[in-house]
Amino acid sequence: MRINDAQVRRNLEKAYKDHSLASSEADTQVALLGLHTALENALRSYLKAFGVSDADYHQVSFPDLMDIIRDKTDLFNDDPGVVRLLVSLNTTRNGIAHPDEGKPSPQQIENDAKQFAKLIRRFWPSFFGDDFPTSLEQSPSKPVLQPPPPEVQHPQEPPKSRPITQPRKVEPIRARSNRLIDRSKLFLKKLWVDEREPRLQKAKLIKRMIAVYLLFTFSIWLKSASFFTVRWPQPVKNIGVVLFILAGAVFLWGCIISGKILAQLRLKRLLLFVSFIYVFYIAVVLLTSDSNVPISQQLLITNQRLINTARIKTVDTASTLLDAPSQFRSLYSGRSNPAEFAFIDDVNGVHLTPIPANQESEQMNSVDQMDAPTSPAPLVQSNQPDAAFSDAVIYSIGFLDNGNLLVTIQVPGGISGDYQGNVEGEVFKCTILEAYPERLYCNGPGFKEGQELTIRIFEQSSNDMVYEAEFTVPLR
């Protein structure tokens, strides 16, 4: 089947010639569009010559048109690469027509225009039944570029004399100091109030305050959860590490939002807010007080209490933040099961670092140093049925390097046998060193600093309680 439409032939010839004469990037783009249009019209006319209904190919897209030609004609000679090539060339044409969707590079445009020209030469015999015209195959002569005319040398003019510049005025020291003062005033003014946002964004402020409260509360929960899980063996211990790191990240996030709140309030609004809370608190205390003390003295006492409370809260908060890493490290090195806690078996195999009751004493790294007397907590001895423990006292209280609590009991006259301790339901392993028969070393899980506890010593053979005393957990 042949195409009998002469207009299709002329369009192909013109598009091919325009491509041959293209000498710039813009000309190549226009030539590619012309080659695409002429080839597409020729392909549709070729289907029409095969007797394919207009409804089957007239309104279809270019890729679908290629599928129809492949299925109903033998133009492509069962070569699937031709279809892929034509679809790729159509994509390049769309990129030129719609550059906002991604314009192809100039090199790609030039290569694809050559591919269009090759396909026209390949399909020409099938379209028209004759060979490709030799007149089109001959490359037309390109316009010869004339060399640029020589530049005319003009005599150089003598350089113009420059006016004498005035000497630079040196800014006096007083003026510079005034400028520094002005900058400082501007900085303090911005710190006091932000004139760029005269209206307080109350909704944003409330959201940030709620977020800070939730973040700080969540960080406390995460810290408690990490302290609880880090006592357990692997892999639960790793979960504690992750929770502690997450608690620090959440706390840092809360600090960042707190900084945004302060930046939003500025000093002026912050002082107004604090003043309002202070006046409201003083008014409530004075109005609800049933004391006969004059109001002036009540005001003084209330201010002192408020200052002390704020100071204590600030110190406690700072101590909690600073001590959190050390507490976590101590708990991480400990164990969860009291029965598995390390205990003293002999003198040679011991290397303990107890933490004495008073913070000013140094840490001790040997058994002799470990037994040096520390400042014990207030003790109350009672219920001592065993005569050997009648004069027994708590000699020292401290922490081991793995976080366990070590209670040393001094028993005058010495003791022997097997004993076991119990502190608030927690089992303490007790042992007697051969070098120190007058001391009973009992250790078990650590407790919170400042907590008041009771230790009870039982003889393992009879399970009778031989000693009981109260003590206060020292500071680390």
Sum this structure up briefly.
By secondary structure, this protein is α+β, with helices and mostly antiparallel strands. Helices cover 51% and strands 12% of the residues. It has twelve helices and eight strands.
What proportion strand? 5-15%
Which topology of the largest domain does CATH recognise?
A: Immunoglobulin-like
| SSE sequence, one letter per element | HHHHHHHHHHHHEEEEEEEE
Low-confidence stretches: 141-146, 335-385
Largest sheet: 8 strands, antiparallel
Alpha carbon gap, first and last residue: 101 Å
Mean pLDDT: 76
Radius of gyration, in Å, reads 47 Å
Shape call? elongated
Strand order of the main beta sheet, please?
A: 1-8-7-4-5-6-3-2
Instruction: Give me the number of helical elements.
Output: 12
Write the CATH architecture name of the largest domain.
Sandwich
Question: Which characteristics define this entry?
Answer:
Immunoglobulin-like; 12 helices; alpha+beta; eight-stranded antiparallel sheet; single chain; 476 residues; 3 domains
